[in-house]
């Protein structure tokens, strides 16, 4: 009668295959979680930017109709000659028109991601982030679109919005509100 004195090569190979399959599953789960976290971060950032511009409009309701545009995030807004922010401990007092120009420039730059840079590369926002503001009377709709990582379906869904580039990577955040002057 012979006694076995160790494990065979076949047993070692089977164990290695089982461990490899298990590790591949764990790595795939990790990758899926990272992508989901990234998409969630982009959504949160877009919602924050939409809320920010709405609050800026609430501060300057007399120029409500002038905020309407579909090209925010294109870099087409230039730095106003009068910045409406705290500078050297003093706050610049701006007229409503100056505040409008400052808000448009600042939101455009935020959508471009210029607040975080490496060299000439903007890193502060998701890819192809575009902002649109639609105004109808006192009703304001702010749409922020960007390009997601994974193909799904167009973020506009049934909406005919032309904010951003239409494709199956587009994601959108839409915030609607009413702004009443003097309230």
From TrEMBL:
A Pfam short name: N_methyl
Domain named Type IV pilin Tt1218-like: residues: 31-103
Source superkingdom: Bacteria
Keyword field: Membrane, Transmembrane, Transmembrane helix
Residues that span the membrane, as ranges: 12-31
Protein name, per record: Type IV pilus modification protein PilV
Organism expressing this protein natively: Ferrimonas balearica (strain DSM 9799 / CCM 4581 / KCTC 23876 / PAT)
């Amino acid at each position: 009668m012979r006694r076995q004195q160790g494990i065979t090569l076949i047993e070692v190979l089977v164990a290695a295959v089982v461990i490899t399959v298990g590790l591949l599953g764990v790595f795939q789960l990790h990758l899926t979680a990272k992508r989901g976290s990234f998409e969630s971060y982009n959504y949160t950032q877009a919602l924050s930017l939409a809320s920010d511009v709405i609050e800026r409009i609430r501060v300057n309701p007399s120029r409500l109709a002038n905020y309407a545009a579909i090209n925010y995030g294109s870099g087409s807004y230039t730095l106003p000659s009068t910045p409406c922010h705290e500078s050297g401990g003093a706050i610049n007092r701006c007229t409503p028109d100056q505040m409008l120009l400052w808000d448009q420039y600042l939101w455009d730059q935020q959508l471009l991601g210029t607040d975080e840079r490496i060299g000439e590369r903007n890193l502060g926002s998701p890819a192809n982030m575009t902002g649109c503001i639609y105004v109808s009377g006192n009703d304001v709709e702010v749409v922020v679109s960007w390009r997601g990582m994974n193909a799904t379906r167009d973020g506009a869904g049934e909406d005919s919005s032309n904010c951003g580039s239409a494709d199956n990577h587009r994601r959108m955040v839409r915030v609607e509100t009413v702004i009443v002057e003097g309230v």
